[in-house]
């Protein structure tokens, strides 16, 4: 089921500062900020060749990363995103195995315009997992 690592996501309290650090200090290629109101975040991607780093800043009230940043005010690793060929088949297989899919269980459109789902971190050793249809 599991395909490539699409990205590693870091929640950051100040996206402009994080972009400057990746672009200027680390010399990385960083995309322009993209607001995703449906997900409550503003996002950029850092291209590192074999995968991407997603930098997330809260957007609006009730952002799903606000509580994470309350616990980790300097920022930190928020989730891993793996590619799957068929997200609905993956969801059904995971649910049949007892894994919990977050939200209403239906895929949302992610930052790449493709369907995504999130899996409960308690089912995967404390790591939030995003699945993206490849
Ligand atoms: Co992500």
Descriptive notes:
Pfam families: Glyoxalase_4 (PF13669). It catalyses: (R)-methylmalonyl-CoA = (S)-methylmalonyl-CoA. Belongs to the methylmalonyl-CoA epimerase family. Residues 4-134 form the VOC domain. Keywords: Cobalt, Isomerase, Metal-binding. The chain is of the alpha+beta class and 134 residues long. It has one domain: 2,3-Dihydroxybiphenyl 1,2-Dioxygenase, domain 1. The chain has three helices and nine strands. The chain has helices spanning 15-25, 66-71, 87-96, and strands spanning 5-11, 29-30, 34-36, 41-47, 52-58, 76-84, 108-109, 115-119, 128-133. Strands 1, 2, 3, 4, 5, 6, 7, 8 and 9 form a nine-stranded mixed beta sheet that branches. Strand 8 (115-119) and strand 9 form a beta hairpin. The protein is globular. The mean pLDDT is 96. Cobalt (II) ion binds at residues 7, 9, 54, 79, 81, 130.
List keywords for this structure.
methylmalonyl-CoA epimerase, 9-stranded mixed β-sheet, globular, EC 5.1.99.1, 2,3-Dihydroxybiphenyl 1,2-Dioxygenase, domain 1, binds cobalt (II) ion, single chain, 9 strands, 134 residues, Glyas_Bleomycin-R_OHBP_Dase, alpha+beta
Helix content: 10-25%
- CATH C-level class: Alpha Beta
User: Which second-level CATH architecture applies?
Assistant: Roll
Q: Could you give me the name of the CATH homologous superfamily?
A: 2,3-Dihydroxybiphenyl 1,2-Dioxygenase, domain 1
Rg over alpha carbons: 15 Å
Low-confidence runs (pLDDT<50, min 5 residues)? none
Largest sheet properties: 9 strands, mixed
With helices defined by DSSP (H or I, 4 residues minimum), what is the helix count? 3
Small-molecule components bound = cobalt (II) ion
Strands, count: 9
Mean pLDDT: 96
């Amino acid at each position: 089921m599991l395909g490539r690592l699409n990205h590693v996501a870091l929640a950051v309290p100040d996206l402009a500062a994080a972009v400057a650090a990746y672009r200027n200090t680390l010399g990385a290629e960083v995309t322009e900020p993209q607001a995703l109101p449906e997900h409550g975040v503003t996002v950029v991607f850092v291209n590192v060749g074999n995968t991407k780093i997603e930098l997330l800043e809260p957007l609006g009230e009730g952002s799903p990363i606000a509580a994470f940043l309350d616990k980790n005010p300097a920022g930190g690793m928020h989730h891993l995103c793996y590619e799957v060929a068929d997200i609905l088949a993956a969801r059904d297989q995971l649910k049949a195995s007892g894994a919990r899919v977050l939200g209403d269980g239906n895929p949302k459109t992610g930052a790449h315009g493709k369907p995504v789902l999130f899996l409960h971190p308690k089912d995967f050793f404390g790591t939030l997992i995003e699945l993206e249809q490849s």
